[in-house]
Amino acid sequence: DGGITQSPKYLFRKEGQNVTLSCEQNLNHDAMYWYRQDPGQGLRLIYYSQIVNDFQKGDIAEGYSVSREKKESFPLTVTSAQKNPTAFYLCASSKGLGGYTFGSGTRLTVV
Amino acid sequence: GIQVEQSPPDLILQEGANSTLRCNFSDSVNNLQWFHQNPWGQLINLFYIPSGTKQNGRLSATTVATERYSLLYISSSQTTDSGVYFCAVAETQGGSEKLVFGKGTKLTVNP
Predict the structure, then answer these.
(1) Chain A interface residues facing chain B, Cβ-Cβ under 8 Å?
(2) What is the pLDDT of residues B42-63, one digit of tens each?
């Protein structure tokens, strides 16, 4: 079955540490997205990519970095510059015209 | 950028009741979607509805694009309908499309 796989489901980060969240899709979608969700809030866009080797900053890109070396993969790195990284992170892909599919998310906690 | 507002923020129902959720958006759109986020965080695409009316079982949605709002109707609610309902609209910039989310309506259906 096609879909999006995010890993890990739970991640704990120490102060000053960089961590990388994985997002893989086998839907052959060109576009991929990373969103952050805080408790009781909607989803806010971190980064997005329409094609391989190209990506754009979203509304809250500071403290995050991404790469898009393969169509199937769009990893997100939460750097030590992100001062409040504890949140739920969702990855999505799209074929356009409403065809958005979301992964099951990664819960990141700073310890 | 485009603004998306949802109401009410919270809704509590008894099983079997009907409800209407509203989404207002600040600019014309050609892509509007409704999502359900279950208690485990998974986002499920309910409707792609830039205009008109669609129905899927006990759920239906109507978008009046000229008046910039969309409504999600839930009839004969069940406890499994609990969760957060998000409205999202697509914003296009420089040929790239991204979804902008409202803050959601948290629905609790009690047995």
Answers:
(1) 31, 33, 35, 37, 40-45, 48, 50, 56, 58-59, 88, 90, 92, 94, 96-102, 104-105, 107
(2) 999 999 999 999 999 999 999 9
Beta strands A31-37 and A87-94, pairing class = antiparallel
Give me Rg for the CA atoms of chain A.
Answer: 13
Q: Is residue A10 within 8 Å of residue A110, measured between CB atoms?
A: no
Q: In this complex, is the C-beta atom of B39 within 8 Å of any C-beta atom belonging to chain A?
A: no
Hey, what are A34's tokens?
């990373």
* HSE-up of residue A102 (Cα within 13 Å, Cβ side): 21
A41: which chain B residues are within 8 Å (Cβ-Cβ)?
Answer: 103
What is the reported pLDDT for A30? 92
At residue B77, does pLDDT exceed 80? Answer: yes
| Neighbouring C-beta atoms of residue A56, cutoff 10 Å | 15
Q: What percent of chain A has pLDDT over 90?
A: 78
Q: Among B38, B63, B35, which Cα is nearest to B47's?
A: B35
Token pair listed for B93: 């910039």
Instruction: Please list, in sequence order, all residues whose beta carbon lies within 8 angstroms of the beta carbon of residue A96, skipping any fewer than 6 positions away.
Output: A31, B97
Checking if the pLDDT of A98 tops 70, the result is no
- Contacts with B48 from chain A: Cβ below 8 Å: 97-99
